[in-house]
Design goal:
Largest sheet of chain A: 7 strands, mixed
Shape of chain B: globular
Number of domains of chain B: 2
Oligomer: heterodimer
CATH class of the largest domain in chain A: Alpha Beta
Shape of chain A: globular
Helix content of chain A: 25-40%
CATH architecture of the largest domain in chain A: 3-Layer(aba) Sandwich
Radius of gyration of chain A: 27 Å
Largest interface: A-B, 21 and 19 residues
Order of helices and strands of chain B: HEEHHEEEHHEEHEHEHEEEHEEHEHH
Distance between the termini of chain B: 38 Å
Radius of gyration of chain B: 19 Å
Chain lengths: 633, 363
């Protein structure tokens, strides 16, 4: 079936999601090898690559984690192929050890790495600016500011990479990845076969190559000076120059237009931000030494241009994050940009009034206020039951056991849905590592039970060294592996435990219990839907010394609900005593499943059958046995 | 009145909980495993039945006793009101298999069920004498599985709620003194859930119950051998394994006595319908104390059925039992005074019941 990714009609304009545009750019460049670990906002790109692999003859894989992904992609580049590697900002950190060397070694076939940042951390634990990593790794950086650029820059990045034998970073953000806009399609370039590696073909990252890295960057800077991705709009001699990149381009345009200052303000939008095209920027600073820098998240461009001004002994007045003009509710350098933020800064610098933030009129007759919603698990989510059982076990135990959290759907268990159970939260695999340390603190008088929690995909991604460490050093801890047989948070991508690959090949699934047993841990398996048995098992295991692993195994309720008819759950209205029960609406208030609702008219509990996925855990919790379950294994 | 929050703060967090199990399983907020009971979530209820019925919240002994036993004459300040004391033993070997001393408790509860006095029994089972489990038994044949003493505190009363939920109206309960008090307070607080007329309470003698530390100790002593039973006859701890019996001093076991037991005033289940303990002076016999009409009726049925044998209780032995009870009561009153000074009033220590014990007016 033809799609915006596959149609071969150069010049045609189509509507594309940013992640589609990046994919299309790589396809047009004749990409041959793609690797990634799923993470929002970039997860779709590799899925698109996998879906088009047969059509275009490229290879796409979900890798175990990001550093393996970049290593694999670099290997393809070494063999002369064009390779694309995709990761979110946190993933860039995982890949950082290898990336830091990549500037030294350089590459052969075009190697493009997409960093997808999540400012405001819509679906991340934390926001940060991966552009710093590109500069640190001494790799050239491109920043698309719209959907056309997302495609065109990706395509060009392969060319640039091959031309300079340097991997190229493309930094996207959530609003580019998940937004949609018009894109004019280009042609598909032919692919080259893999090179044979001779005895003296080496790809080595050693320090003697460092001067050459700098020579290559100087060459790239020259190329950037004349890049068409750097654009200026505005008067010949503006009163104020907005210097921006990425999403800041659209927001700046909108702010200038809404404030009606197009005749006073020019906008220089850079697409090639590092190394900074110094001559180009200097020429604009000479025309207008008053600059407002608009970018998300860090003052990356701002600092680079400040350094440039200092080097050139230019007297420039800077407005932006350092001056406090570009800031969201959390202050400069935090959160997302939007036109309001830019308008605030621009109106303050220019001394003009800005339209009120309250100029949107709400009609209470027509407009419905969106009710506030808790961060919570889906109906039927096995994690809700796992947290419930863990909470029960720790409270019964009474020693205030601590749970080290990790990254995945179950991170939401740090909120009310998981009874605020997580004591720590850092990065993929951070929980087991911390638990391995905390499980060694008994000699210092620390006697609380120590638990770590991680999902199945996270287990393969980053937990293996932590578990080895815990077992090797005989830490006293319980590792709960929440195995829902999916990388659920990012859209049900397969992982080693499922055996299936990105391109749909079915292989032997990895056994989590087999791996843990091989590491010498005592391994147990429980079904979180059986809350009583799971509670008992957790309680039992936290009484014991050594490293214990408990796999809480239940297929993700959303995956399960797609496989067939949902089990039926309903409240026997005769048996439910309502508020007379004394249970305090336990099913809806304490267990908190979104499908467990309160029928105010009847004064009784009810199951929202549209939302309910039929896990039936609530049926086992109702003290009156009023909740009925039918058709679940 | 107070609720789950206060139950947690005033009883559980202070280590006063007896593990009677009454608060467990009545509501979804309170859960139990092994020797722990916890209010897992705050229920927000200000007047909780759990608090009102707990044997370790303030208890008006005089009033509860009056309600349970009425005006039975013969109140003994040391072993409670009673009408008769007997030596007793079960004489039907079918019924007494696996029992500890005379098999009287098992014989009585089977008789109660066989005679239709009860439809179900709230009992304590164990596979190895170490890990007790509360169970509701509704088949007479199942009762044998619960025979024998359990030394680790069991949360038996949680099965009382299971009985109510499964429609078992007439219930027999075998429990420690704290559990007998739990049942009696429950009958007072929520008579619609636990009706005195439909409940038969067989109380056990108890000086202390053990914590789960005892299980770990025994398993260690058994050295990997499977433990098949535990007995504590006459100052001796016997650990039975497939390889034979390991003998230790009872003091080894006593170190695992729960500190909450130091606050237990009642040695002989003074508010039961009928109380049973060992008769340490006569191997294979029990001490049996009849307290209520219902207890008397049960004894009559057992005798009539020819499954129980009784004989006169030696007065000197009764005095020995009373003095043992006095010793414990004196220690407990001192403890109750101490915690009262720290702000917890568990009983009315000005009542003659308590004062007489301390002031040496009893003998």
């Amino acid at each position: 079936m033809q799609s915006v990714l596959t149609i071969n009609e150069p010049g045609t304009q189509v509507l594309m999601m940013g992640n589609e545009a990046i994919t299309r750019g790589a396809l047009e460049a004749g990409v041959q090898f793609c690797s990634s670990y799923p993470g929002s906002p970039s997860a779709e790109i590799l899925s698109f690559m996998a879906a088009t692999a047969k059509t275009f003859g490229h290879y796409a894989e979900w890798s175990t984690n990001e550093i393996v992904a970049i290593e694999a992609a670099t290997a393809a580049s070494f063999a002369g192929l064009r390779a694309l590697c995709i990761m979110k900002q946190n993933g860039a950190n995982v890949a950082a050890d290898f990336l830091m060397s990549l500037g030294l070694s350089g590459c052969r076939g075009g190697l493009v790495v997409v960093f997808a940042d999540d400012p405001e951390s819509h679906s991340s634990t934390n926001e940060f600016d991966s552009r710093n990593l590109a500069r640190w790794a001494e790799l050239p950086l491109l920043e698309p500011g719209n959907f056309q650029e997302a495609k065109d820059m990706t395509k060009w990045a392969f060319e640039l990479s091959e031309q300079t034998q340097t991997p190229v970073i493309i930094r996207s953000v959530t609003r580019i990845c998940h937004g949609r806009g018009n894109v004019v399609l280009g042609d598909f370039l032919p692919k080259k076969p893999a090179n044979k590696l001779g005895q003296w073909d080496k790809l080595i990252a050693l320090n003697p190559f460092h001067p050459y890295t700098h020579q290559k960057l100087a060459k790239i800077r020259e190329i950037f000076e004349t890049s068409p991705f750097n654009t200026y709009t505005g008067p010949e001699n503006p009163e104020l120059l907005i210097l921006t990149s990425g999403t800041g381009g659209f927001y700046s345009q909108e702010a200038v237009s809404r404030l009606g200052v197009a005749d006073r303000v020019g906008v220089l939008k850079l697409g090639t931000t590092c190394p900074l095209p110094a001559k180009l920027v200097k020429s604009y600073l000479e025309k207008c030494p008053r600059v407002l820098v608009v970018e998300e998240v860090d003052p990356f461009l701002e600092h680079n241009v400040m350094v440039l001004a200092a080097q050139k002994e230019m007297l420039v007045k800077f407005f932006g994050k350092a001056s406090g003009h570009i800031k969201g509710p959390g202050g400069p350098g935090t959160g997302e940009l939007n036109p309001d933020v830019v308008m605030d800064g621009l109106s303050a610098v220019l001394g003009v009034a800005r339209p009120s933030r309250n100029d949107v009129v709400v009609d209470p007759e027509k407009d419905i206020a969106i009710p506030a919603r808790d961060l919570t698990f889906c109906a039927g989510c096995p994690h809700r039951a796992s947290f419930f059982a863990t909470k029960n076990a720790l409270e019964i135990d009474g020693r205030q056991g601590v749970v080290m959290g990790d990254i995945g759907c179950y991170t939401l268990g740090g909120a009310k849905a998981g009874h605020f159970l997580l004591s720590s939260l850092f990065c993929m695999g951070g929980g087991i590592g911390m638990a391995s340390g905390m499980g060694k603190l008994e000699q210092f008088g620390f006697n609380q039970p120590v638990l770590a929690m991680a999902g199945d995909s996270t287990f393969f991604h980053a937990c293996l060294p932590g578990l080895v460490n815990a077992r090797w050093n005989n830490s006293k801890m319980l590792f709960l592996i929440l195995d829902n047989e999916a990388t659920a948070m990012t859209g049900f991508q397969p992982h080693p435990g499922t055996g299936q690959t990105a391109m749909g090949e079915k292989g032997a699934p990895f056994s989590i219990e087999g791996i843990c047993q091989a590491m010498g841990a005592d391994v147990y398996i429980a079904d979180p839907y059986d809350v009583a048995a799971t509670t008992e098992k957790i309680y039992e295991l936290i009484q014991q010394p050594g490293v214990k692993v408990l796999i809480l195994r239940r297929t993700c309720a959303l995956v399960q609900s797609r496989r067939g008819p949902k089990p039926k759950v309903w409240v026997d209205q005769e048996k439910c005593l309502g508020d007379a029960c004394g249970c305090g609406r336990f099913c809806s208030k304490v267990f908190g499943c979104p499908a467990c609702i309160w029928d105010a008219a009847a004064g009784k509990a009810r199951i929202d059958e549209v939302v309910c996925n039929g896990c039936g855990v609530c049926a086992s919790l109702c003290p009156q046995g009023a909740i009925q379950l039918e058709g679940r294994d | 009145m107070r609720g789950g929050k206060e139950l947690k703060e005033e009883v559980q967090d202070k280590g006063f909980c007896t593990l009677c199990g009454l608060c467990v399983g009545r509501c979804p907020y309170i859960k139990s495993l092994e020797d722990k009971i916890a209010v897992v979530f705050p229920c927000g209820i200000e007047e909780g039945k759990c608090y009102a019925a707990c044997p370790r919240t303030f208890t008006d002994w005089d009033t509860v006793e009056q309600q349970v036993l009425g005006d039975v004459d013969g109140r003994d300040p040391l072993i409670g009101r009673y009408t008769q004391v007997w030596m007793a033993r079960g004489i039907n070997p079918e019924l007494t298999r696996g029992t500890q001393d005379g098999g009287t408790v098992t014989t009585l509860i089977r008789t109660a069920m066989a005679e239709g006095m009860i439809e179900g029994a709230v009992l304590t089972a164990t596979s190895d004498g170490l890990a007790p489990q509360a169970i509701l038994v509704t088949e007479a044949g199942e009762i044998g599985k619960t025979a024998g003493s359990k030394y680790i505190a069991a949360t038996t009363l949680q099965a009382l709620h299971q009985a109510r939920r499964t429609g078992v109206e007439k219930v027999g309960i075998v429990g420690r003194p704290c559990q007998v008090m739990g049942v009696r307070k429950y009958q007072t607080v929520v008579p619609e859930e636990c009706n005195q007329d439909n409940t038969l309470v067989i109380g056990l003698f108890c000086m202390w119950a053990l914590s789960y530390g005892f299980r770990d100790y025994v398993r260690q002593e058994a050295g990997g051998q499977e433990v098949t039973g535990i007995a504590i006859p006459k100052g001796e701890l016997q650990i039975k394994t497939a390889d034979g019996t390991i003998t230790k001093s009872v003091e080894e076991a006593k170190q695992f006595a729960r500190s909450a037991c130091n606050l237990c005033w009642d040695v002989t289940s003074e508010l039961a319908d009928i109380s049973v303990g060992a008769a340490e002076f006569a191997e294979g016999w029990n001490t049996l104390i009849v307290r209520s009409e219902r207890g008397w009726a049960l004894l009559g049925k057992a005798l009539k059925a020819g499954v129980l044998e009784i004989k006169e209780y030696p007065p000197a032995m009764l005095q020995e039992l009373r003095m043992a009870a006095l010793g414990k009561k004196r220690r407990v009153v001192a403890e109750l005074n101490r915690i009262q000074n720290e702000g917890t009033s568990m009983v009315d220590l000005t009542s003659p019941r308590f004062k007489s014990v301390v002031e040496g007016e009893v003998n």
